Amino acid sequence: MSIENNKSKNLGTKFIHAGMVPDPSTGAIMTPIYQTSTYVQEAPGVNKGYEYARSQNPTRKALEDALAIIENGQYGLAFSSGVAATDAVIKLLNPGDEVIAANDMYGGTYRLFTKIFAKYGIKFIYVDTTNPQNIQTAITAKTKLIWIETPTNPLMNITDIAAVAAISKAAGSWLCVDNTFASPYLQNPLDLGADIVMHSSTKYLGGHSDVIQGALIMNDASLREQLYFIQKSCGAVPGPMDCFLVLRGIKTLHVRMKAHCENGFLIAHFLRKHPKVAHVYWCGFSDHPNHDIAKVQMRGFGGMMSFTLKDDSIDAATKVLSSTKLFALAESLGGVESLINHPASMTHASIPREERIKNGLSDGLIRLSVGIEDADDLIEDLTQAIG
Ligand SMILES: *Cc1c(COP(=O)(O)O)cnc(C)c1O
Hints:
The strands form two sheets. A seven-stranded mixed β-sheet has the order 1-7-6-5-4-2-3, with helices on both faces. It has a five-stranded mixed β-sheet with strand order 8-9-12-11-10. The protein has two domains: 8-251, Type I PLP-dependent aspartate aminotransferase-like (Major domain) (Aspartate Aminotransferase, domain 2); 253-386, Alpha-Beta Complex (Aspartate Aminotransferase, domain 1), CATH 3.90.1150. It has 14 helices and twelve strands. Helix 2 packs parallel to helix 9 and helix 3 crosses helix 4. The longest helix has 21 residues, at 253-273. The chain is globular. The chain is α/β, with parallel strands linked by helices and 387 residues long. Residues 81-83, 106, 108-109, 149, 153, 178, 180-181, 200, 202-203, 212, 214 line the site of pyridoxal-5'-phosphate.
């Protein structure tokens, strides 16, 4: 079974050592949790580069350096949540600016765009980004940002990052890629021409369902300056304990992602063969509509997938959702434990039903975040739940 290509060869060493510098005061190998709000100055204006913890914190600095390294970027910035990171990107814009965004993306991103930023005069145009031509068609002189998510949540659609980056560059726009689902183990959008990578570090980077956090990574120094200014001015910074948890999570990202990919492969194939299952959305299948692009821009296909039953009713889905014993019924994803979710009533409830159905998100769709438990046990659990 081919689940990863050889480009993932040295990722383990990189993830374990990213940004690690022994603590200068003690030599501690793990960056300490600098639980402080301020720093004592030697004389007015004379300090060690740390003045106030909203602006700088050594634990956050170690994490931000690590984030840059694992995404092959120059600069990383950590935020108090994934949506806070997204919020900072939109604050680069001015009233009248236009954003072209994917019509199939994380519900919270859609809510932030339509319910918060639209009223400040920023215009959002939603298109099916799996065909980059749709983005080209939507470009105007006011386009300042293109926002894509790939793979998407929950339909696992893939957008060609390099093709969109070329369109964005020609239009003088920024391209931001939400890389939460793939994680830096499977995909590095900056290498494909994106300007900003966004993560909900809550998911695979943290990896243990114990922290809420977000990240932005970029190469351009001026973009970093603007985003750092927004970070410190608006104040959505993560605490040092949370930075420590994400730093620790990153050290095992390669081991976890490899296991997520292996289990994802086995469960996607199990579901596809199940007589009661109608369709499995997983980008690793060779007949997935965007599989060819996934194969080029990703190193593996991960453990996220969705499926529908032949009986695509809320009732039939509810029976499965309330019968699993290992798969916990919960929002979120990317932790070591398996989760099962009902997008229509949970993660995507904020999208109007008509809009949701139009975008292929049916009432009965079930999403899985396949964890790293033993695959046999997960398959046994799904077998009894689907019945
Ligand atoms: C969870 C998630 C977010 C939002 O991140 P939070 O950490 O929950 O604020 C954004 N995009 C995707 C794809 C997500 O899964």
